[in-house]
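TA notes. Do not distribute before section.
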Amino acid sequence: MGRNLKFEIFRYNPLTPDIQPCMRTYRLEEHPSMTLFIALNMIRERQDASLQFDFCCRAGICGSCGMVINGRPGLACHTQTCDLPNHIALHPLPVFKLLGDLCVDTGVWFRNMGTKIESWIHTAKAFEPSVPEERMDNALANHIFELDRCIECGCCVGACGTARMREDFIGATAINRLARFHIDPRDNRSPADFYDIIGDDTGIFGCMGLLACDNVCPKNLPLQDQLGIMRRMVTIESVRGIIPAFIRNKLQGCGCKQKC
């Protein structure tokens, strides 16, 4: 027989604002290899069919089941109950719009963020469907792929102190996304173009350096490294008229594809 787990789950439906938010208690017997995803489904199937939470892939790929688990953002499908104490408290991710209980709307936030940072390849080349794809060095392609592994679960945003205080902060996931285009040789944007997007306190200079984003990322993306690289790039760009070009080029030293 497994442990008797006590779940305290945040409950609130914005469609019934007359009912105040509360924490509701559920108890469940633990089974081998039980994840929070399995536990929540058992609670919904056996105890409370009204419980709302998101899921899709159950394999840590879709990012739908992001939530705050005992005060720490994470994925329910990646979290085994054996790694948690008997008392488990679950809350929805902050920052995002609450849809109900543990469900939040990450889609609108990420879509707006992608539009704000212009998350696409900028090139003056006309598309030619008959022309072979541009070849790329394998090491660079792997580096770009590493930054492209973000599943947009929202855990880094929910853990971010700045994002909790201001709605216009783009967060680590957007800065990581821009870093991906910064090293892509197909993107023709200059450091000045990137500076215009993130060179203020809604972007890279709004980061307080707490690095909770890097600590909670379920895919272990190198968010800390990218924050440092992009901060250095926009800082050098901000003093372009003061520091000689040869010094800027030496300081850049981050694999930038443009001449700085």
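Switch to the second chain here.
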Amino acid sequence: MSVVRYSLFVFVQFIVLMGLHGQQAPQISHYMFNNQMFNPASAGFTNSIVASGIHRQQWYGMEGSPQTTIVSIDAPLRIINSGVGLNITNDRIGFFNSTTIQLAYNYQIPFLSGTLGMGIHLGMNNMGLRANWNPREQGDQVLENLEDVSGFLFDVGLGLFYSVTDQYEIGISLGHINQPRFDGRGGSHDIYRQRRVLNLSGNYNFTLDMFPRMNFVPSTLIKTDFTTMQIDLSLIGMFNRQYWGGISYRWGDAIVLLGGLHLQQLPLQIGVAYDIATNWMSRASSIGGGFEIFVRYSFNLTADRIPQSHRNSRFL
């Protein structure tokens, strides 16, 4: 049996016999542009209805590598000092296919010199295991006897988000509070279980006198399921509030190059990211890592004003 098939055999055996208990939060390089993906308290913090889409292909060229597509929309409800949002996420990796729909709501109050949002999201996750994903090899009894299973998981998350316009944002959220689980067979072993995930995020906006037409935004996202931790550190700069680029480091995983265009008249943002794997996965991918495409469109709610670019990580 080849090394690849042997590794697959062990992986499937682990899933079927012991269940999967890892961190399942999607890994996104454009996290600084869509806080609502992981923090419901950040929805509706602008004067616009904001729709965005992200497609990510991780470890491109490797069979069964993670593919993630996220469509989001959020809007303010100023009459009741609130914000609402919707996230639709499809995540595929190997045998697993997950589609999640999340509804977010937050209440916003003035706090110190900014605005504090307190939010909750409620979601439904359709989790499936695709037994026919991998070509079978005669003699691999685990693969030959595996059957498709699927189920629905109810999910709850909470968050806090604080924003000082044109200066900085910080947030904290806890996802999968109820730790939804699914065994698919009525047995005692989980096929799938979502562990609680704590997210810490922040960004700061500044300019330098020597570069008056440049706006810089360092940001970070820290995720942990209380067993493992992932840290993203990023720096993005925008020239003339139209062209932007930056670099990000995902601790122990990848260096990410980001770039894009902001058309303020529409207003529309387009971005791309290229992940250069810094671990052994660079050899498994045909391009040494993965790529990501990002699109965002804002429907301005103030009819008598020209659309403006906000100086924060979501609009730079």
